[in-house]
Amino acid sequence: MQTDKLLLVEKVLILKSLSIFRETPENILADLAPLMEELECERNTLLFHEGEIGDCMYVIQQGEVRIHKGDITLAVLKDREVFGELSLLDAETRSASATCASDCSLFRIDQEPFYELIDSRPEVARGFIKILCQRLRAQNEKSVKG
Amino acid sequence: MQTDKLLLVEKVLILKSLSIFRETPENILADLAPLMEELECERNTLLFHEGEIGDCMYVIQQGEVRIHKGDITLAVLKDREVFGELSLLDAETRSASATCASDCSLFRIDQEPFYELIDSRPEVARGFIKILCQRLRAQNEKSVKG
Questions:
Q1: In this complex, is the C-beta atom of B126 within 8 Å of any C-beta atom belonging to chain A?
Q2: Which PANTHER family match (chains A, B) (predicted)?
Q3: Are residues B143 and A139, on separate chains, in Cβ contact within 8 Å?
Q4: B97-100/B46-48 β-pairing
Q5: Is residue A99 part of a domain?
Q6: Residue A67 has pLDDT above 80, yes or no
Q7: Positions in chain B whose pLDDT score sits under 70
Q8: Which of B57, B45, B140, B124 is nearest to B92 (CA)?
Q9: What is the pTM assigned to this prediction?
Q10: Are the beta carbons of A89 and B139 separated by less than 8 Å?
């Protein structure tokens, strides 16, 4: 059974609840929300394989996703967590595989419409540049302290 | 005595020689090069102070710049090194101070013309998003290995 389609405003609220978008202005999230494609996946579905070229990111609405290299589990992600976001932005190869560890409701955002959005709305590009800078600053802090 | 003004192509070559722009296409660097303002600074010039809001990045053409928190030196940067680049992109506060440790020839790129460029040339925004992703991937690799 399919879940009902979410309203745009519900998608915006989901994006806003993600740590990577916590500081992102709502008008940018409102541009991004229509690109969120709803997916229902069964347990054990392979979402992507290590080494593949990535062209989308995922948000977990409900369920668990295992990030792994072969049999070695690197992380188990749960509701409202994001994965594959660097491949959305730069289309490099996936550094690990992702498999559904339970039945999952996911959102997928594909690279092509995302880059069309960036090309037509420079403030979205600025928003993402800012998000990436914040993550780099946080990483730098961590490595100084680490 | 002022040095002669550099040609655009020389500025592009300088940008290309920087590790952060090594993979950046020349057409993007050619858009960025006219924003490089040449500066001659004497030894002991304070370029910026920890905690200030940053709005520009610097490239060292010749000389040495000390990055420090008060009296504690974090790094001494030399020819063809870059500093302050995160503040160019996100206008957050400077995490440390920068002082010329010798007479220096520098380039400064200011945020306002940089963001005007990003707004009019989405491929420049894409290029910077890619650069930031590469740096995050490199940082992630380092913290996994570290």
A1: yes
A2: CYCLIC NUCLEOTIDE-BINDING DOMAIN CONTAINING PROTEIN
A3: yes
A4: antiparallel
A5: yes
A6: yes
A7: 1-5, 143-146
A8: B57
A9: 0.74
A10: no
